[in-house]
Amino acid sequence: MERTGRSAANISIIPTTKAQRLRMNARSQPSDGNLSKRKVITKASTTVTSQPTVKRSSITSQTGHNVQVVLRLKGKYGIKQSLNPTVLLPVQEARDKKVILTTNNYVYSFDHIFYQDATQQKIYDQVGKPILSEVLCGYNCTIFAYGQTGTGKTYTMEGDLENANGKPAPNAGIIPRIICDLFECLNGRDGEHIVKISMLELYNEELRDLLYPGDENKTLNIYDDAQNGVKVSNIHEEVIISAAHGLDIVKAGVKKRMTAATNCNEKSSRSHCIFTINITLQEKNDKGAKVYCTSKLHLVDLAGSENSKASGSEHLRAREAASINKSLLTLGRVINSLSDKAPHIPYRESKLTRLLKDSLGGRTKTSIITTIDPLSQSIEDMKNTLDYGSHAKNISNAPLRNGIALEERHVDTLVSTIIKMQDELRRAWDKNGYCMPKKEHDELVIRAETAEQIAEQREEELKHEKERITEERRLFEEELRTLKQQGAEEIQRLSRKERESQEEIHRLSVELDNLRQQLSQKNKVLEEISHMATKASVKRERENDSYVEETHPQKKK
């Protein structure tokens, strides 16, 4: 892919000598990306020729235009398939606009329904081509795809990005077909033109510029502009000079987009992607004076809504799923609030809804492509998508055609902008030759001063905390020493008591042994006395018997 510096020069719309002297030779222009997202759109029945023509209407604003919502059913594209009769059925008298969900017998109406045999070309002819015609008439427009993971959103928006001499591939999606048709139209008209594109990714509530040539991510901020609606600061816009050049840029941006494999889809988009085409056209008014008109087209591929269990996501993937679902739930609340005409619309609850603010309820013409897979998608997910589309269809936008600037005013604006940028660049040079915009430099200075103040405050807090910890440690160590000393004294006391007890036990044991010996000796004495008494008793009896015999011999006879 080549990005030549000649492209900007070849399509310059600053014909004056003064402007030519000031014109920069940059190959592309980083500028604030105007993400005006407003609500919208005209019916898909709008007829547009294969080469949209620019027709200026005397009406500069339209009111009460509902958002156009179409339904696409995923299938093997190009092969006719039937619906799952147990889940979704067409309403026969209006099969191109109504389907009935058999689980609740609710009829859902859309501006158009594309069944499984619908080709990419058919989708583009009825959705993309009418929108491109409105963009070339000076309106800001938006097309975005909404649906569950694996239902064909990215295929519908991007499809096959390859091209042959600026012609889209057979399976090309809306983005490459719009780029090819845009240049086919511009090359066949008089007047100069500039086409710039940008690609913004919203991943985990963080913005990333997919076309930024540097390796490091830069800070992107969303802010509201009184005249141009929602804008993103510092976004890089690439000037493209042909369809082939534009498709090469798109392919480079798509490669940077966050994707991952899930159970729902082999390559699931893990982020929301907002692709913007910024068009400036030179024409002539009724008096023959040159005038300039700018318009924008936002093409949005939303990440698939899913739960971490169904998608098989774990750890980081679970966090991604939570972030994706949060932004899509907020989008759902915004759509419901707009549909119900609620007094407060929660645009600011997520970055996605802030970026889509002008596309939903604003001054933009908007088409929403809802995608479902009736053959494999769960009934709950299918119902959620159908409900989204049903509510979005009730949203009313007030499209407003962008103003037309005369050549002198347009040139003066460009020259003033260039001079201002050059002055800021000169003021931003530092001693090392590094430059940055003055606003960014001032912001960095303020951030540095704030960071320094915070650091000093943290240092003081850390000092006090360190002193507190030191004092607590001293008290703890002192208490620990006291406890250790008391413990040692108690151990010594118990040791002494134990020794005394052992000595007392030993003394009593010795005394008991002595008593036992004395008892044994006394028992022996008693036994001897008893024996002697027995012998004495026997002797006395014998003596008595002898005495009786001697004194009474006749008794014996």
From TrEMBL:
A Pfam short name: Kinesin
GO molecular function: ATP binding; microtubule binding; plus-end-directed microtubule motor activity
GO biological process, one term: spindle elongation
Listed InterPro entries: KIF11-like (IPR047149), Kinesin_motor_CS (IPR019821), Kinesin_motor_dom (IPR001752), Kinesin_motor_dom_sf (IPR036961), P-loop_NTPase (IPR027417)
Entry's localization field: Cytoplasm, Cytoskeleton
Keyword ATP-binding applies: yes
UniProt feature coiled coil, ranges: 441-532
Keywords: ATP-binding, Coiled coil, Cytoplasm, Cytoskeleton, Microtubule, Motor protein, Nucleotide-binding
Binding site for ATP: 147-154
SMART domains in alphabetical order: KISc (SM00129)
Stretches for region Disordered: 532-557
GO cellular component terms given for this protein: mitotic spindle; spindle microtubule
Chain intervals with Basic and acidic residues compositional bias: 538-557
Domain Kinesin motor intervals: 66-395
Family: Belongs to the TRAFAC class myosin-kinesin ATPase superfamily. Kinesin family. KIN-5/BimC subfamily.
This protein's name: Kinesin-like protein
The species this protein was found in: Rhizopus azygosporus (Rhizopus microsporus var. azygosporus)
Gene that produces this protein: CIN8_1
